[in-house]
Design goal:
By secondary structure, the chain is mainly alpha-helical. It has a single domain, classed as Up-down Bundle (Na+/H+ antiporter like fold), CATH 1.20.1530. The protein has 14 helices and two strands. It has helices at residues 4-29, 36-60, 69-92, 98-109, 113-162, 173-178, 197-213, 216-234, 240-250, 253-266, 275-300, 305-315, 321-330, 334-359; strands spanning 181-184, 190-193. A two-stranded antiparallel sheet has the order 1-2. Helix 5 (113-162) crosses helix 7, helix 5 packs parallel to helix 13 (321-330) and helix 10 (253-266) packs across helix 13. The longest helix has 50 residues, at 113-162. The relative contact order is 0.18. It is a multi-pass membrane protein. This is Auxin efflux carrier component. Its main location: membrane.
Length: 363
């Protein structure tokens, strides 16, 4: 049962995030400390330094030998359901688009498990809930955030290629056979039109993989989970000097991400940057579509009892802060993601309490 002390722990975990947010907002809106270019630079600092080290730090301290792999499998099934639905929507609906499918996937699936989820689920389900939420968070970093990074990089690389001037007379045949042209509409939809599909595809993939190889976000979690397997299998401990080097930057990860979000808000004309319609859309995906998909995946794989309840609760946690940082860096609906993070944390507590009360009747 959740008591006042548990409520205080959740509030105590959330308030520092909003303090960092307001400091970022005030530094631009009121005190005029940073210019827009400097705000972009700070977001890149967060994206390429503090967040990768934060990801490596909590991933490296996981114990994958104690994971509940049926819980992980249910998470995979739920994400596959969402991907299939979004792919059909993008393909078959006149309003569907590749860009909005990426953002909708983020809104449906990526959660802020560590900051809000751990204290809340601990109050609800004890150590079992904490273990499962941490497992889900580590798996999210390894698979789903890495997948998001891949599709964002592929989209940006495709747009970069499409903006390359078309070949002129005298260019070599080899060059003209692999340069795609693209049509980009006002909603951000990109349709690649290629005359020779295989060379164009592999040219695109080669550039994407080269960029990902230089992006610390793409391998921080991989290196972290590799260390976790080695350390727990042979009982190694990370050297203190290495741990200290990582912690000095990783501890700033969440705070600097919220600070960057506050600066982004200050640069917008309206407080609710994306407008009320998209705000409601984001809340529906975050707190209804995501948990519904997780419930289907969990029940299909036979999860029962508290494991089923935790699976649904963790799918209804607030929006991942990292998803905003990526959206800002790659220029894709950062206004929608920032609003989802800010308002999601505000409304999450009553929504999660409602889920908790309802799930008590589920056996």
């Amino acid at each position: 049962m959740i008591g006042l002390e548990d409520v205080y722990k959740v509030v105590a975990a959330m308030v520092p995030l909003y303090v960092a947010l307001m400091l970022g907002y005030g530094s631009v809106k009121w005190w005029k400390i940073f210019t827009p270019d400097q705000c972009d630079a700070i977001n890149r600092l967060v994206c390429y330094f503090t967040l990768p080290l934060f990801t490596f730090e909590f991933t490296a301290h996981a114990d994958p030998f104690k994971w509940d792999y049926m819980f992980i499998a249910a998470d995979v099934v739920s994400k596959v359901i969402i991907v299939v639905v979004l792919a059909l929507w993008a393909k078959c609906s006149t309003k569907g688009s590749y860009a909005w499918s990426i953002t909708s996937f983020s809104l449906c699936t990526l959660t802020n498990s560590l900051v809000v989820g751990v204290p809340l689920v601990k109050a609800m389900y004890g150590s079992l809930g904490v273990d499962l939420v941490i497992q889900g968070s580590v798996f999210q970093a390894i698979v789903w955030l890495t997948s998001l990074l891949f599709v964002l990089e592929m989209r940006r690389t495709g747009l970069d290629i499409s903006s390359t001037p078309s070949p002129v007379e005298g260019d070599s045949p080899a060059r003209t056979s692999i340069d795609p042209t693209a049509k980009v509409d006002l909603e951000g939809r990109m349709e690649m039109i290629v005359s020779s599909s295989r060379p164009a595809f592999w040219s695109l993939m080669r550039r994407v993989w080269m960029k990902l190889a230089m992006n610390p976000n793409s391998y921080a979690c991989i290196v972290g989970i590799a260390w976790a397997f080695i350390a727990n299998r042979w009982h190694f401990e990370m050297p203190g000097i290495m741990d200290g080097c990582i912690l000095i930057m990783s501890k700033a990860g969440t705070g600097t991400a919220m600070f960057s979000m506050g600066m982004f808000m200050a640069l917008q004309e309206k407080l609710i940057a994306c407008g009320p319609t998209l705000t409601v859309f984001g809340m529906v995906l975050r707190f209804i579509a995501g948990p519904a998909a997780m419930a289907i995946g969990s029940i299909a794989l036979g999860l029962r009892g508290d494991v089923l309840r935790v699976a649904i609760i963790q799918a209804a946690l607030p929006q991942s802060i990292t998803s905003f940082i990526y959206a800002k860096e790659y220029g894709l609906h950062a206004d929608v993601l920032s609003t989802a993070v800010i308002f999601g944390m505000i409304v999450s507590f009553p929504v999660l309490l409602a889920y908790y009360a309802i799930l008590e009747f589920v056996h």
